[in-house]
Amino acid sequence: MSLRLPQLTAVLCGMLAAGHVHAQTFDALSPLQIAREGAGGLSFGLGVTYAPESGRYADDALTLSTAQHALTASARLRYNLTDTLTLGVSQPLTYALSQLHVVNGAEGQAEGKSSGRFGLLAPTLLLNVHADRSPYATLELGSRPPLFGSAWGAHIEGTLSLLHDPALLSVSLGADWDEREGTDISVSLAGSLLLNDFVTLSSSVGQTWLLREVAEPITSLGFATTYDLGPRDTVTAAVTLTRRQESWSVTLGLNTVWRR
Q: Does the N-terminal or the C-terminal CB of the chain have fewer CB atoms within 10 Å?
């Protein structure tokens, strides 16, 4: 079985990103998502993630139950200026549904409330500089302008990928800065295994340190399966488990990429 780099890089595009839990949203155009077809290569991607959260508080007087459902959709476009230089832009759109249920313990009265909110986030502009041979070293620079209520943001990430048929192993170190929320430092490790000409399995583990807080780092575990739709097109289904302040949350994702 011969390993094809674009197939493995397509699946790892979401895995390193899953290992990075940034407080400020940078839609992931991972360095490993770059198609290696050379200058003039164009790719377009669509992604959707769903993240439910819930909580409960109770005492002798009240019982409060909360739930939030966050849905994020994003469109991504990349263009290879040269064999080693790629420009990218992504545009996310979010929808959040919040629900609150209150029970008065003394009177037995219950009250519920729900509200939904759409949000258009600022686009992210990214520049990738990458090697065209193994080991694949990549430097990614990103910027988010202060549009649609977002603050200025910046992103830098370095990745080193080792290719050994039929597997690809990558380690990444990155930092994100937000004008309002400060700086985060993230490190992640991702691996991908090509099962056959169509299916690839991937996993990742990562930690993020929020420099503005004195707290334990955020830990994430990611798992994904990618199906090869053709020589250059892929679809990936992923699940990410995130641990923050002794509680776990789950994010489900679906991502497609078309290359021309």
A: N
